[in-house]
Amino acid sequence: MENTTKVNDPKLTTREIEILQLIATGYSNTNIGTVLNISPRTVSAHRNNIRRKLHVNNIAGLVRYALLKNLIQ
């Protein structure tokens, strides 16, 4: 049984979704920055925004969200 509540379904930006997908597939901030042509510090800011919006404190939670939303396979 999946836990997909509509109450806590935050709106992520397109860029945040891109970054979440790369985080969930194992990319570091430096690697993500290289792929998206942005600085690792900008990636870190996006990562913090994603974690805040999702109320998640670790990578496992980000990966779980990405899997539940079919952002990664």
From TrEMBL:
Biological process terms in GO annotation: regulation of DNA-templated transcription
Q: What is this protein called?
A: Response regulator transcription factor
Q: Which PROSITE patterns match?
A: HTH_LUXR_1, HTH_LUXR_2
Q: Which Pfam families would you find in this protein's record? A: GerE (PF00196)
Sequence ranges assigned to domain HTH luxR-type in this UniProt record? 5-70
- The superkingdom listed in its UniProt entry is Bacteria
Query: Lineage, please?
Result: Bacteria, Pseudomonadati, Bacteroidota, Flavobacteriia, Flavobacteriales
Keywords assigned by UniProt, alphabetized:
DNA-binding, Transcription, Transcription regulation
- SUPFAM superfamilies per UniProt: C-terminal effector domain of the bipartite response regulators (SSF46894)
Q: Which InterPro entries match?
A: Sig_transdc_resp-reg_C-effctor (IPR016032), Tscrpt_reg_LuxR_C (IPR000792), WH-like_DNA-bd_sf (IPR036388)
GO MF entry, a single one = DNA binding
